[in-house]
Amino acid sequence: MASIPFLSFFSFLMISTTLTSATTNSTTFKISLSPFPHHPSSDPYQILNNLATSSVARAHHLKHSNPKTNTTSSLLETPLFPHSYGGYTISLSFGTPPQTLTFVMDTGSSLTWFPCTSRYLCSQCAFPNLDPTKIPTFVPKLSSSEKLIGCKNPKCSWLFGPDVESRCQDCEPTSRNCTQTCPPYIIQYGLGSTGGLLLVENLVFPQKTFPDFLVGCSLFSKRQPAGIAGFGRSPESLPSQLGLKKFSYCLVSRRFDDTGISSNMLLETGSGSSDAKTRGLSSTPFYKNQVVSNPVFKEFYYVTLRKIIVGDKQVKVPYSFLVPGSDGNGGTVVDSGSTFTFMERPVFELVSKEFEKQMGNYSRAREVETLSGLAPCFNISGYKSIKISELIFHFKGGAKMVLPLANYFSFVGDDKVVCLMVVTDNVVDQGVRGGPAIILGSFQQQNYYIEFDLANERFGFAKQSCV
Predict the structure, then answer these.
(1) Which residues, including other chains, have CB under 8 Å from residue 73's CB and lie 6 or more apart?
(2) What confidence tier does 81 reach under pLDDT thresholds 50, 70, 90?
(3) Cα dist. 137→103, 120, 182, 193, 346 in Å?
């Protein structure tokens, strides 16, 4: 059992470890990672309800998306900032000369896009400290390297599939010089969406420029006040286009939302591969969901979760939820674009009921549950300290994630109520089956060094203070 003293609203604990990378002969590029403002409401219950609802909507989107030895390395490093929006942002520079914009870092999608042209429109984008009419945009006419891609450009098929040429109605079947542009894209992100045209542009880091990078020029969006940097597994993703061997980040505590405090995100490029592990990390292999009926499942970073432990009790989660079946449904994905970890209702009920059982001496705060969209919540008024059971994820290969208390329970509203910061689809009216059963969100990744080792197909993590 872990004990938590009384702290302020949305308080967090930090645990520090030291990590040493095995990479040698590297140069460094830096990117900043920061959280993004979420909602204009100053009501803490409404803010949490928005985050919980958006996490569930995001889960529904991920679960039901439409288909689609010797080493030489260099490190690109960028700051990563936290925001009350629920996401973490980085800055990237595109064009000639470079134009620098903010992007939400998202491991659950692949296309990178920016708000584009002076006519860009964003609906429902009244976020804190943001005037929707003054969202920074990329201006194509100011760049000498910007090019719209043609319908028969192979990169067009990355988004629209190999049969996209059948939609090139203005092209002669045998012509390779067709000037018809690639079709417009529309992408859904849970509660948000965006649409526009595909470009190739220079992606510029201080030490290196990547020419002909496929990027979306979005002309309109809903609930998307910044662009998206897609870190998924598809060909159009940033890791795929840059040929990354691995990328890693450390998400600072949510108590630093909108403060300008940031951590670093590392991108490692280079040819060849090495199986050397980063010292100090626990790791588990990625699991590739190969279901052809929904190719979008191949875009996600699946890991094999073996056990969920609450206190000293193993929650008996049916195997069908832990590993994708022949239909591709089930399993666990890691998603930086989801705020709170999502569990399908049958899994969530098993976990939450175990917490209720072990914390039976505290009364339920039903009103706060209704207002916040979180559950279970417990009234702890009158206690000088409280006892909360540990939450532990056991992964294939022996990796064990013992979550810090602040990564799964938090005070809500004041110092009288604490809530489990995990959501299920009971926030909306109907349950959803299909796709990943568990989505490990960014709230649970706070103050962890997280590594996506793409060359060796493994996911690594270690507790670390990120500031």
Answers:
(1) 23, 25, 26, 245, 268, 269, 270
(2) confident
(3) 11, 7, 21, 17, 43
| CA separation for the pair 82, 241 (Å, rounded) | 25
Q: What percent of the chain has pLDDT over 70?
A: 81
220-250 burial string, b = 16+ CB within 10 Å, else e?
bbbbbbbbbbbbbbbebbbbbbbebbbbbbb
Q: Phi and psi of 279, rounded to 5°?
A: -65, 140
Beta strands 363-364 and 448-453: pairing type?
Answer: unpaired
Please classify residue 171 by burial: count the beta carbons closer than 10 Å to its beta carbon, then call 0-12 exposed, 13-18 middle and 19+ buried: middle
Token pair listed for 227 = 């662009």
- Reading phi first (left if > 0) and then psi (alpha if -120 to 50, else beta), residue 129 is in left
β-strand partners of 116: 138
**Nearest one of 218, 67, 176, 235 to 165, comparing CA atoms:** 176
Listed in sequence order, the residues at least 6 apart from 338 whose beta carbon sits closer than 8 Å to its beta carbon are: 55, 58, 59, 62, 108, 439, 440, 441, 442
In 317-361, where do the E strands start and end? 332-334, 341-343
Sequence-ordered list of residues with C-beta below 8 angstroms from that of 246, at least 6 positions apart, any chain: 268, 451, 452, 453, 454, 455
Q: String of b and e for 399-408 (b: at least 16 CB within 10 Å)?
A: bebebbbbbb
Q: Can you tell me the distance from the alpha carbon of 319 to that of 158, in angstroms, rounded to the nearest whole number? A: 34
Look at the block and give the residue holding tokens 């979008």. 296
pTM, rounded to two decimals: 0.86
The whole-angstrom separation of Cα 289 and Cα 302 is 7
Q: Terminus-to-terminus CA distance in the chain, angstroms?
A: 27
**Residue whose C-alpha is closest to residue 123's, from 187, 186, 193, 46:** 193
Distance CA 289, CA 295 (A): 9
| CB-CB contact of 62 with 111 (8 Å) | no
What angle is formed at CA 243 by the lines to CA 239 and CA 246, rounded to 5 degrees? 60
What sign has the CA pseudo-torsion 360, 386, 449, 376? positive
pLDDT band at residue 38, thresholds of 50, 70 and 90? very low
Q: In 83-115, where do the E strands start and end?
A: 88-94, 99-106, 113-115
Cα 88 to Cα 446: distance, rounded to the nearest angstrom: 11
Tokens of 279: 């010292």
348's tokens = 């969530």
Look at 95-109, 234-248, 373-387, 389-403 and tell me which has the smallest mean pLDDT.
373-387
